[in-house]
Specification:
Strands 11, 12, 13, 14, 15, 16, 24, 25 and 28 form a 9-stranded mixed sheet that branches. 27% of the residues lie in helices and 21% in strands. By secondary structure, the chain is α+β, with helices and mostly antiparallel strands. The structure holds guanosine-5'-triphosphate, sulfopyruvate and manganese (II) ion (MN).
Length: 601
Amino acid sequence: MEKLAPAIAPPPGIGDRRPRHKTVLDWVQSVAQLTQPENIFWCDGSEQENDFLLGEARRLNVLIKLNERKLPRSYLHRSNPNDVARVEQFTFICTPTKEEAGPTNNWIAPAEMYQKLHRLLKGAMRGRTMFVVPYIMGPPDSPLTKVGLELTDSIYVALSMRIMTRMGKIALERLGDDTRAEWNRGVHSLLDVNPERRFIAHFPQDNAIISVGSGYGGNVLLSKKCLALRIGSYLARKQGWMAEHMLILGVESPEGEKHYVAAAFPSACGKTNFAMLIPPSHFAGWRVTTVGDDIAWMQIRDGKLWAVNPENGYFGVVPGTSYKSNPNAMRSIEHDTIYTNVALTDDGDAWWEGKDGAPPAHAIDWRGNDWTPASKEKAAHPNSRFATPMRNNPVLDSHVEDGAGVPISAIIFGGRRSDTMPLVFQAFDWDHGVYVGATMASETTAAATGAVGRVRRDPMAMLPFCGYNIGDYFRHWLEMGKRLTSPPLIFHVNWFRKSPEGQFLWPGFGENMRVLKWIIDRSENRAGASETAIGYVPQARDLDLNELPGVSTEQIVILLSVNADEWRNELAGHGEFFDSLGGVVPEELQKQRQKLAERLS
Ligand code: GTP
Ligand code: SPV
Ligand code: MN
């Protein structure tokens, strides 16, 4: 069998620049003593280093070079077929007490978890290289920006972190030699990529993460879900800011009026697509720009909410991405991109279900097997992904590097719901909006292992990512509202309502601009709506639906309807969810539920 993660031997001048920081050096030494790597590779983020690592990754078959003419400087990676998504059942929040982790997280006491993981990590990097990956999350001059170090025995992780974060020298310079500086300690080892030895463990009090047994995405790019969301949310509450699973987009009218909105949709429910939206031709002169596609860090200034994107790249869902659905994503992934688990065509191109044009007559599927259009299996895994630098995005917002962030006019929650949820509604006020976020639900997707298409409550799209007690998280939201003198309005959207025949009623993608425009107009007090039991819902006349082909008046009526029977079920679902949390739900949200019940009766 091919050796997993063999050691690499860099030439002098590459991988040998040790930082000055004493605590970092000591920590790297202590992890090396435990894991016994053959050598240590200190990443500085330089071009020479990247070229060398790409060459080694090709030599070791970790990456396959794609057709240079079609996809310059781009590569394909195939993960182990047992390792294709986040693993929520193996993800732990290791706080001193179970109560701090709360009812929605898996918990093991820190001492016990450290012991278990240290046993697994003992000698785990023998014959391998340990990469030291220093990185920062956030624009360099933001007060929210955090430093992290990830130690990993995966060259794929080292190369991906270079795309997803601001990596290398910039982080070490920021640390300097200040031994009191705050930084996150991340340790990752592939071990033998066995689901029975797969743990993603967070130690919020120690600002530490240990991930073993996986080589995939959110399990191993420790900057992303682990630091920016789970540890991030814990730090955010302590320090009075917010770490959220939200895209951030800018929308500018032909007159030059600009707004920013942040939107929380669960995994694989449309954040990247919404963040890169191209308005339909009816909206000539309107422009949407991307600040971030997955994570928002937000703080209060002058009574307003300001957001930064802590990331430097996009780790996006590939299937369904096309020049029709998301041209900006297509242009972003035309070069300098690492694809994971897509199909490989005979001419070295990447292919996936939902790509433009006819399927290839023959390809190699994501597992490495022959594939033809007659095959029963999918060519690309449903959770296949691209990692691409955000600078590839043709509509990158000009304020993406602003440390101050961008001011948020509206917060949008949304999920995949075949029924019940109208296309859009507005919460009555902040506290009601927190209730709408806390009770949101969505059909599960391939982004996490487990059943797909099951409706589950996913508060603020943070169910898998909140690094502490969800009741305290709700309380934090309510407290932020009290501190905001000009709070963003809060909305809920649903692009996924279906007809009884199972067809999407709303065309989605670029046409979501119509909903976005109503949201902006509401925040400027210039759009109509009807007051209903669940919030303010637009009537057909309140939305700009001109030149919207293929959507009948009846469809619009269903999309904007609030069905009393469905909502009584929904209310019962909220109650069951709150009950399942065992008494941690704040009184204010219980009151909100009571009020909704009264409005519905
Ligand atoms: P994560 O990266 O997992 O957090 O996902 P995401 O929320 O960024 O989701 P993404 O935008 O990648 O979309 C996931 C899937 O939903 C893709 O297959 C899209 O084609 C599909 N999708 C996105 N927007 C829409 C929409 O407006 N309507 C419909 N029907 N599908 C959509
Ligand atoms: C998600 O699942 O929300 C993602 C993909 O953004 S991963 O990075 O794998 O978590
Ligand atoms: Mn995500």
